[in-house]
TrEMBL record:
Keywords carried by this UniProt record: Isomerase, Rotamase
The protein's name: Peptidyl-prolyl cis-trans isomerase
Family according to the record: Belongs to the cyclophilin-type PPIase family.
Class of enzymatic activity (EC top level): isomerase
Length: 198
């Protein structure tokens, strides 16, 4: 009797166990667990911790993390700082020399994420799908940068989890013109490194 009961229970549970161990199901569980990768931007003014939204901006997050993992951002600067608007970096060194990049990515501005205070978005030219390595962090709610505004919009892919006080320090740095560039901090705000948080 007990043997039959055990066999019946085993027969019922075996398909469930097999389903849960299928590669696709296991991977889905892993992806859900790591849906918001965290990175730390270390600057000469302090650290900024970012939470990246891999679910809603998979292309932008994968692109950003690719540059992070290659050390692309190490030694770059926040080269454009505009109070009450945003701080931009990730593409130039202290000499305002632009770093080489990978191919541009698809613009994900239609993902539902908004350019609100503390959000991070991909910088680009007037060409919709032109974003590469440069990013900006919004200081204010910049609704006009959202999808459906004056053009396709700017793709948000995460937000500041810690360190808005550091962003405020960056905003407080005096700026001026340097060559053809405007709003450049007169004292370099250096991105010493961007690394995945452990």
């Amino acid at each position: 009797m007990l043997n039959r009961l055990f066999q019946a229970c085993f027969a019922l549970w075996l398909p469930v166990v097999m389903f849960l161990t299928l590669p696709g199901v296991a991977e889905a569980g892993m992806q859900q667990k790591g849906a918001n990768p965290m990175v730390i931007i270390s600057t000469n003014l302090g650290d900024i911790k970012l939470s990246l939204n891999e679910e809603k901006a998979p292309i932008s997050v994968a692109n950003f993390l690719s540059y992070v993992d290659k050390g692309h951002y190490d030694g770059t600067i926040f080269h454009r700082v505009i109070p009450n608007f945003m701080v931009q970096g990730g593409g130039m060194d202290e000499n305002m020399k632009e770093k080489s990049t990978d191919a541009p990515i698809k613009n994900e501005a239609d993902n539902g994420l908004k350019n609100t205070r503390g959000s991070i978005a991909m910088a680009r030219t007037q060409v919709v799908d032109s974003a590469t390595s440069q990013f900006f962090i919004n200081i204010n709610d910049n609704d006009f940068l959202n999808h459906g505004g004056r053009d396709f919009g700017y793709a948000v892919f995460g937000e500041v989890a810690e360190g808005m006080d550091v962003i405020e320090k960056i905003v407080a740095v005096p700026t001026g013109n340097r060559g053809f560039h405007q709003d450049v901090p007169t004292e370099p705000v250096i991105i010493q490194s961007i690394k995945r948080a452990e």
